[in-house]
Amino acid sequence: MTSRSEPRAADKENGRPLKSVCFVVASPLTLKFFFVDQIAALSRAYRLTCATNCGDPAWLRQRGILVPLLNVRIQRPPSPRSDLQALWALLGHFRMSGFDVVHSNTPKAGLLAMTAALAARVPVRIHTFTGQVWANRSGLARTILKALDACIAAMATHILVDSESQREFLLREGVLSAGKARVLGHGSISGVDIERFRPNAELRTWVRFCQKAPSSAVAFLYLGRLKRDKGVLDLARAFSQLARVHEGAHLFIVGPDEDNLEAQIRQVCGHCISRVRFNGYTDHPESWLAACDVLCLPSYREGFGSTIIEAASAGLPSIGSRIYGITDAIDEGVTGLLHNPGDVNELAGKMRILAENEGLRKSLGCAARERAHRYFAKEAVTAALLEFYTQALGAAAG
């Protein structure tokens, strides 16, 4: 593997070495699901290195991206010993390689990377906020977690936020200063691949056949990690209400069960469990979106709601909770419907409206697809990120 401190011929532009960038995330899955296209684009413009908790140094190369990968054991749960080891490892890499930019994403990676980058005197330190774990908490936990986010913001030279409503929330909470925080374009951390996420009649037929779901069913979809703060149990309770009055309604729940919620969902939906389909982790979310009619994201906290614009690109309307982040992804009454977070009855009512009105589903879905293509195509989001880097590095040089 080529050291970041060794300039290569390919790294020359106008006779000068390209700027060096270290892109830091906690999990390689974050790179896989959100940043592959951005990593590829950045690697063409800068000498790029990625740092994440991955033991396979060829992980990115196997995906066609020729970028060095540093294995740094950044763990999501708090662990003083592991966190100090990761901090020390990042500090060593930053000092040895002399990066011009360190860009962190996700809270733990942000805290460790911004601390190490500040100590190593990296001139441009960027952190992207994608939602706050403390947003729906109270007491000491909220105070501590909020203070840690404020520390990340203070150590960074530049802050990106993936939705305007989240930026406003962080400003109101005093975590960010107005002049330091920016939203790229219309929001979203990475945009949507409009070729991958699209209506597909063949996939729709095949997935429904495999799941033994009628072609005439109105299929609601939850797509993502099964977590309590994602409102999955609220969705189960709302579907249980809907199923009593709408025999054609089905619910697909797709994603890893991180909070062991399946047993509770089965209990809540006992009378209609034959119309609920469970599927764990998937590498093909586009297949499930093609098979369904409405996406549901009744979350209690969300940075933006990337799944919503993926659904939109596939021609699906969404029902989401009226919280920051989701209100940027759903244009209420135009591309989907909103409900108050935690209000199961209101959620059930919104589901019933779309279950019983095919024309409304189609009109919302068409508008959602048009909006996703206009504002959130991955190419536009990536171009905005590259422009931001150019400005940030230009300001640092000045």
Task: Report what the structure shows.
The chain is an alpha/beta fold. It folds into 2 domains: 9-190 and 378-397, Glycogen Phosphorylase B (Rossmann fold), CATH 3.40.50.2000; 201-375, Glycogen Phosphorylase B (Rossmann fold, 3-Layer(aba) Sandwich). Helix content is 44%, strand content 16%. It has 14 helices and 15 strands. The strands form 3 sheets. Strands 5-4-3-6-7-8-9 form a 7-stranded parallel sheet, sandwiched between helices. Strands 12-11-10-13-14-15 form a 6-stranded parallel sheet, sandwiched between helices. Helix 1 packs across helix 14 (378-397) and helix 10 (306-313) packs across helix 13. It is globular and about 65 Å long. The two termini are 33 Å apart.
Show the helix and strand layout.
Elements: E1 12-13, E2 16-17, E3 20-24, H1 28-45, E4 47-52, E5 69-71, H2 80-97, E6 101-105, H3 107-119, E7 124-129, H4 139-155, E8 158-161, H5 164-172, E9 181-182, H6 201-210, E10 218-223, H7 232-245, E11 249-254, H8 262-268, E12 276-279, H9 285-291, E13 294-297, H10 306-313, E14 318-321, H11 326-329, E15 336-339, H12 344-355, H13 358-375, H14 378-397
Parallel strand pairs: 3-4, 3-6, 4-5, 6-7, 7-8, 8-9, 10-11, 10-13, 11-12, 13-14, 14-15
Antiparallel strand pairs: 1-2
Primary descriptors:
about 400 residues, alpha/beta, Rossmann fold, 2 domains, seven-stranded parallel beta sheet, six-stranded parallel beta sheet, 14 helices, globular
Name the CATH homologous superfamily of the largest domain.
Answer: Glycogen Phosphorylase B
Order of helices and strands: EEEHEEHEHEHEHEHEHEHEHEHEHEHHH
- Counted beta strands: 15
The unreliable regions are 1-10
The tally of helices reads: 14
Structural class of the helix and strand makeup?
alpha/beta
Specify the helix fraction band.
Answer: 40-55%
* Global geometry: globular
User: What kind of sheet is the major sheet?
Assistant: 7 strands, parallel
The CATH architecture name of the largest domain reads 3-Layer(aba) Sandwich
Integer-rounded radius of gyration: 22 Å
Mean pLDDT: 92
Sheet with most strands: strand arrangement: 5-4-3-6-7-8-9
Number of domains: 2
Write down the CATH class of the largest domain. Alpha Beta
The portion of residues forming beta strands comes to 15-25%
Question: The CATH topology of the largest domain is what?
Answer: Rossmann fold
Terminal residue distance? 33 Å
